[in-house]
Amino acid sequence: MKKLKIIWDAIIPNNPVLIISIGLCSTIAVSNSVQSALLMTFAFALVQIPSNVIVSSIRKITPNEIRVPIFVTVIAAFTTIAALISEAYFNAIYQIIKLYILLVVVNCIIIGRAEAYAYHNGIFDSFLDGVGNTIGYGLVLLAIAIVREFIGKGSLAGIQLMPDSYQPMLLMVLPPAGFIMIGILTGAIETYLRNKEGKR
């Protein structure tokens, strides 16, 4: 149960986007379509999880004074791998969100987890923390993308679901809709957590 709690805490109580409010730029930018959200989640996983594992495995030999440059170097290496894989297998979508995949190297979530968790905990726990943060980040992206793409384009994952007569709400594919959706989800999560705390 303690190990599962590591994952759960990263998904809901300490969700990086909705509770801690970091990684908002990429969340808003790539959440206007399900395909972009899925690829971003895939790239994020390829960086977050192994970076946590590597940082944890070398923490005892990492000089405290230069730990952050070392973290960034590790993250940059995995970002390069994620970008190459994404370009090779999902090139069409990659070209749309290329900038945001490359910017994963300075994503506050990944650097933050390396600094705050992986550097102070064992390899397996750091692996679980990486998995939890990936799921938490990915679920937020997908939840927002499903709503924005469906209402804003009448489609899901590029598949047109609404008839030709459907008038899409174009605001939903613009950045302001991303902020609105994050606000709604944050309110829902905060309410859930308060109600859960109140029942104890």
Q: Can you lay out the helices and strands and say which pair or pack?
A:
Elements: H1 2-11, H2 24-30, H3 34-57, H4 67-89, H5 91-102, H6 108-116, H7 123-153, E1 155-156, E2 159-160, H8 175-198
Helix pairs in contact: 1-7, 3-4, 3-5, 3-6, 3-7, 4-5, 4-6
Structure description:
The protein is mainly α and about 200 residues long. It has one domain (about 1-200). The chain is built from eight helices and two strands; from the N terminus they run H-H-H-H-H-H-H-E-E-H. The protein has helices spanning about 1-10, 25-30, 35-55, 65-90, 90-100, 110-115, 125-155, 175-200, and strands spanning about 155, 160. It has a two-stranded antiparallel ribbon. It is globular, with a radius of gyration of 18 Å. The chain starts with a helix and ends with a helix.
Descriptive key words:
200 residues; two-stranded antiparallel sheet; 8 helices; mainly alpha
Q: What's this entry about, in short?
A:
With 200 residues, the chain is mainly alpha-helical. It has 8 helices and 2 strands; from the N terminus they run H-H-H-H-H-H-H-E-E-H.
Tell me, what's the shape? globular
Kindly report how far apart the N and C termini lie: 19 Å
Number of domains: 1
Query: Which regions have little confidence, pLDDT < 50, spanning 5+ residues?
Result: none
Structural class computed from helices and strand pairing = mainly alpha
